[in-house]
Amino acid sequence: MHPLPYEIYAIRYATVTRKHAGENFIGADPHESGGTMDYFCWLLRNAERSYVVDTGFTADVGGKRGRQFLRCPSEGLAALGLPASEVRDVIITHLHYDHIGNFALFPQARFHLQDREMAYATGRHMAGPVLSGAYEVEDITAMVREVYRGRVRFYDGDATLAPGLSLHHVGGHTDGLQIVRVFTRLGWMVLASDATHYYANMEEARPFPIVYNVGAMVQGWQRCRELADQPQYVIPGHDPAVLMRYPAAHAGTEGWIARLDCEPAG
Ligand SMILES: [Zn+2]
Fold first, then answer.
1. N or C: which end of the chain has fewer CB within 10 A?
2. How far apart are the CA of 218 and the centre of ligand 1, in A?
């Protein structure tokens, strides 16, 4: 028997223009332009449960890092009928600044996180600039406080959260990155988050340059494909093409919120 399918929504909350393709692909031609990077949070929901995947950065952090903040992720959730204040479960794919701000907006949430991501974000690799640059120490200490408040659920590898919903550790981009497998009306889909920032990272086997372990990143692409029923059901973490391939959630959310449990266009 199939589990109850989930609807999946991508909420675009920020964007940035990349200077050159080398910011997105290891070994890119220096003459190739970089295009745009979009920033997303996601909502999974069915009649029984709802899960938010990642919580995005704040306007302050985005401004500090030169990103164009469009709308707070909580506005997207509200437009989908779920106030952030009522969210019970937040899956954190990894602890980079663009995936874990806005804690105060989720006072009731439990955070679902890999053991290895917390160890990585608080360990030896953060003692220098190479791998710590995409973390915000205030976000990490906020998450440590949530641990002590009993609001963090830790996982060591793969875990089923609910029927039709599971977490899978892949590492690569960060040591503790996890992806989310979701059962939908189309079958199994995968929210890859930063296992593949763009469709092209995975499809053209061109790794993203912010990376802890390139080998694990390459294996992670394979894992994404194995877990999804179709290769096109793997959803990248930052690709503006997502909003072109999928329909708006409802009228008034064009260019902002897309429904992903649909056959992609193009
Ligand atoms: Zn990211």
1. N
2. 17
Helix ranges (DSSP H) in 126-264: 129-132, 137-148, 199-203, 214-227, 241-245
237 Cα–ligand 1 center, Å: 6
* Sign of the alpha-carbon torsion through 102, 158, 228, 37: positive
| Residue 84 pLDDT exceeds 80 | yes
The pLDDT assigned to 32 comes to 80
Residue 229: other Cβ atoms inside 10 A: 13
Q: How far is the CA of 197 from the centre of ligand 1 (A)?
A: 7
* CA angle, residues 53, 12, 58, in degrees to nearest 5: 75
Q: Check if the beta carbon of residue 162 is closer than 8 Å to that of residue 201.
A: no
Please state the pTM of the whole predicted model: 0.97
Could you tell me the distance, in angstroms and rounded to a whole number, from the CA of residue 264 to the centre of ligand 1? 22
**Centroid of ligand 1 to alpha carbon of 226 (angstroms):** 22
At residue 40's C-alpha, the angle toward residues 220 and 59, to 5°, is: 130
SS3 130: helix
